From TrEMBL:
Belongs to the peptidase S8 family. Residues 36-103 form the Inhibitor I9 domain. GO terms for molecular function: serine-type endopeptidase activity. The active site is at 135 (charge relay system), 214 (charge relay system), 547 (charge relay system). It comes from Rhizophora mucronata. Its main location: secreted. GO terms for biological process: proteolysis; response to symbiotic bacterium; response to symbiotic fungus. Residues 375-461 form the PA domain. The keyword Secreted applies. Residues 661-765 form the Subtilisin-like protease fibronectin type-III domain. This is Subtilisin-like protease SBT1.6. It is found in: Secreted, Extracellular space, Apoplast.
Length: 771
């Protein structure tokens, strides 16, 4: 005991010295997150908080204590102090707090959901399943969150309705059963001179109330109740409803208006949500620096593992940096990573040029129409100033644009903000032209002036017309809402694309879901554009992004969890992936919005969510916590790094596992580019029968072009006693003779069928340069 006290006093003296500045070289105070081995806590401390505040840091510098999905704390320190604390034998890892960003109704019907039969009826619309939404909060008064005719709150629920500005316990009900907000990391970043300012309480609420709109939209997409006579300023009229209308909602506000979301707060939300008792977590958030961190340095991956290991399904957005290759985010194999596709509804608008041409675009403008009147057309980019072509703030000359339709290039500022710049300069309207990077992907916006978005080709055409004609003129014809669009779905141009740059043995994204022009609930705090000067009020808004796709899968998971309460998160993901569709409503392969060409598994993963088939998938690929540990061993993580993720000590097998043998519902065959001659790779997979007890499945193989795929055995027989079966997929190729497509890969699939079910898994064959 004397030795222990001496060591503790010595450590406290060291910590005091650090805080006094005697050893400090870098005095910039930042927030750091520490992963601590919880089993090392000396028994003299009653709680981990007492231990951390006595032996590690001053209590006033602690922001969060983590004890469920993660063990440790976050605190404000200088980098040198943080580095010194990392030498403590109980500290497994530490990392700096990072800022994250949001990845910002016919969609349920488009997924195959119908009122009379199928997954809605068989799951009772997701009743009693609890979805936790990590976002900007919620506007609780919306009809989407009514608790009329809902039963009592599930008895297992342990959460709270946290009181804050304009938010009381009365704002929660049997639908919205919990609400919390997390801002200590955000406040520390602003207090310590970070890239953001403190919360502006004139436009934001220090509570779970949503000042941004994004959180209300995602929550109602996942689980909104039926709301009749819904529309956004007359667009998309009809009945709005979420994917799981009877599921319960718990809101965790981790993102703040104009400020983003901080890892330390997100990790605290994971801790709280799992303790509260959620069944599904929906997180439409990703990194803002374009850099994929190893799982043991990624708080979203760490928090998600802690949730998944306790049976909680976690759905995440794939990011909006497509169509660039390797742009997909949220890459951990226990996360379900969701890209975005279009639905069969659109909001067309035509640009009419003075020479008689009509160029097709989209718009959600709802003000006074132009009624065919032709206006002078001007392109500020003709001057050669990039900022003018982008219609940035204070770059337009009113004398040049007053009374004219202005062509603005997309990029560098929000699309709706460009329209406001044009309006303030006196412009009569705007044509927003996609650049090459956006391709032909069109997203509708509720502009404050007459405006239309054009694809890259038509954008170039209208700029050429404006530059080559002495008196160019144009008008815009708004056509409202059109249903029955073909083809659909189409992979959205912005949707994050593979390959997986961090863990290429795992195909990401996993699948796509509706994410373009989605109607859902909205806040009363801002207008539909989200701009401060937009004073319009609307109960619903139409948004696009993988942020909108993610809650579709969250709601789908709630329905599947309700129908199959014994399924694991991996089984639910498998059901979605192996039943996903790769065809559009023309019964042709899905295309890529950016190029118009056929899309690939790097774009859509296993395919587009198809809930009718997912409810009864036949077979599932299940994954245990130990399987994920072996996978991390296989990609070279050491035991200490893995423990940062798992919380518990681990021991990797003496023989390093092959990471590609994780029992994932897809296969990625990586061949070294230096390979000579024919090379083979084998993959082991195991399926569990969740259909009729007696079944025989036979395999169908579509080999990637230039490769050969074999599966042994080619027949799987299930009985009352035999519920699992394993098989080996062998991919053989001579990489020198394979002609890779533009994405650097070739694609195929294997499908197991018993005559009723088709259990499909994509196969990717590509080259890589080993480190």
């Amino acid at each position: 005991m004397a030795s222990f006290l001496f060591d503790s006093i010595s450590l406290l003296f060291l910590v005091f010295s650090l805080f006094s500045g005697t050893l400090s070289a870098d005095r910039t105070v930042k927030t750091f997150i520490f992963r601590v081995d919880s089993e090392s806590k000396p028994s003299i401390f009653p709680t981990h908080y007492h231990w951390y505040s006595s032996e590690f840091v001053d209590p006033l510098q602690i922001l969060h204590i983590y004890d469920t999905v993660f063990h440790g704390f976050s605190a404000t320190l200088t980098p040198e102090q943080a580095h010194s604390l990392s030498d403590h034998p109980s500290v497994l890892a530490y990392f700096e707090d990072r800022r994250r960003y949001l990845h910002t109704t016919r969609s349920p019907q488009f997924l195959g959901l119908r009122n009379q039969h199928g997954l809605w009826s068989e799951s009772d619309y997701g009743s009693d399943v609890i979805i936790g939404v990590f976002d900007t909060g919620i506007w609780p008064e919306r009809r989407s969150f009514s608790d009329v005719n809902l039963g009592p709150v599930p008895a297992r629920w342990k959460g709270i309705c946290q009181i804050g500005v304009r938010f009381t316990v009365k704002n929660c009900n049997r639908k919205l059963i919990g609400a919390r907000f997390f801002l200590k990391g955000h406040e520390a970043a602003s207090r310590l001179g970070g890239p953001i300012s403190g919360i502006n309480e004139t436009v934001e609420f220090k509570s779970a109330r949503d000042a941004d709109g994004h959180g209300t939209h995602t929550a109602s997409t996942a689980a909104g109740r039926h709301a009749f006579r819904a529309s956004m300023e007359g667009y998309a009229p009809g009945v709005a409803k979420g994917v799981a209308p009877k599921a319960r909602l718990a809101v965790y506000k981790v993102c703040w208006k104009n400020s983003g979301c901080f890892d330390s707060d997100i990790l605290a939300a994971f801790d709280a949500a799992v303790n509260d008792g959620v069944d599904v977590i929906s997180i439409s958030i990703g990194g803002g620096d374009g850099i994929a961190s190893p799982f043991y340095l990624d708080p979203i991956a760490i928090g998600a593992y802690g949730a998944v290991s306790r049976g909680v399904f976690v759905s995440s957005s794939a990011g909006n940096d497509g169509p660039a290759s390797m742009s997909v985010t949220n890459l951990a194999p226990w996360l379900v990573t969701v890209g975005a596709g279009t639905i069969d509804r659109n909001f067309p608008a035509d640009v009419i040029l003075g020479d008689g041409r009509r160029l097709s675009g989209v718009s959600l403008y709802s003000g006074r129409p132009l009624k065919g009147k032709m206006y002078p057309l001007v392109y500020p980019g003709k001057s050669g100033l990039p900022s003018s072509s982008l219609c940035m703030e204070n770059t337009l000359d009113p004398n040049m644009v007053r009374g004219k339709i202005v062509i603005c290039d997309r990029g560098s500022s929000p699309r709706v903000a460009k329209g406001l710049v044009v309006k303030k300069a006196g412009g009569a309207g705007m044509i927003l032209a996609n650049g090459i990077s956006n391709g032909e992907g069109l997203v509708g916006d509720s502009h404050l002036l007459p405006a239309c978005t054009l694809g890259s080709n038509d954008g170039a055409a209208v700029k050429a017309y404006a530059s080559s004609t002495s008196n160019p003129t144009a008008s815009i014809d708004f056509k409202g809402t059109v249903i029955g669009i073909k083809p659909a779905p189409v992979v959205a141009s912005f949707s994050g694309r593979g390959p997986n740059g961090l863990n290429p043995e795992i195909l990401k994204p996993d699948l796509i879901a509706p994410g373009v022009n989605i109607l859902a609930g909205w806040t009363d705090a801002v207008g539909p554009t989200g701009l401060d000067l937009d004073t319009r009020k609307t109960e619903f808004n139409i948004l696009s992004g993988t942020s909108m796709a993610c809650p579709h899968v969250s709601g789908a998971a709630a329905l599947l969890k309700s129908a199959h309460p014994d399924w694991s998160p991996a089984a639910i993901r498998s059901a979605m992936m192996t039943s996903a569709s790769t065809f559009n409503n023309l019964i042709q392969p899905m295309t890529d919005e950016a190029t118009g060409k056929a899309s690939t598994p790097y774009d859509f993963g296993a395919g587009h969510l198809n809930l009718v088939q997912a409810m009864d998938p036949g077979l599932v690929y299940d994954i245990t916590n130990n399987d994920y540990v072996n996978h991390m061993c296989g990609i070279g993580y050491g035991a200490k790094a893995i423990q940062v993720v798992t919380r518990s000590p681990v021991t990797c097998p003496l023989k390093r596992p092959l990471p590609e043998n994780l029992n994932y519902p897809s296969v990625a065959a990586l061949f070294p580019s230096s390979s000579r001659g024919t090379t083979s790779k084998a993959f082991i997979r195991t399926v569990t029968n969740v259909g009729q007890p007696k079944a025989v499945y036979r395999v169908k193989i579509e080999s990637p072009k230039g490769a050969m795929v074999t599966v042994k055995p080619s027949k799987l027989v299930f009985t009352e006693a035999v519920k699992k079966a394993s098989f080996i997929v062998t991919v053989t190729a001579d990489v020198r003779n394979i002609v890779l497509d533009d994405s650097g890969a070739v694609f195929g699939s294997i499908s197991w069928s018993d005559g009723k079910h088709v259990v499909r898994s994509p196969i990717v064959v590509t080259q890589f340069d080993p480190l």
